[in-house]
Amino acid sequence: xxxxxxxxxxxxxxxxxxxxxxxxxxxxxxxxxxxxxxxxxxxxxxxxxxxxxxxxxxxxxxxxxxxxxxxxxxxxxxxxxxxxxxxxxxxxxxxxxxxxxxxxxxxxxxxxxxxxxxxxx
Length: 121
Fold this sequence. Notes:
Layout: E1 7-11, H1 18-30, E2 35-41, H2 50-58, E3 62-67, E4 78-84, H3 106-114
Parallel strand pairs: 1-2
Antiparallel strand pairs: 2-4, 3-4
């Protein structure tokens, strides 16, 4: 049996538009995506966690792992993987924290503010 595996990478842009993100993921799953690799995943204090919301929208056959800082908001940005367990089974997870980068330059701070974030990173 030959089965295709479709993997999508998706920058959630600080998770600031969760309803649209969830709708996009639902459609992509209907179109055959089996694995989502998310960047710029953020957990906000007074909102449902976007990754749990995506998993709930996709259904019980979907699972996830994530790697975020313990902080909420953009200071805790991280990554996540959501996959259809009918197609793939998790064997092992190793989470690595990379060293912090340099301070943002002025134009990067301005872009961060315009994108809805805070420039303390």
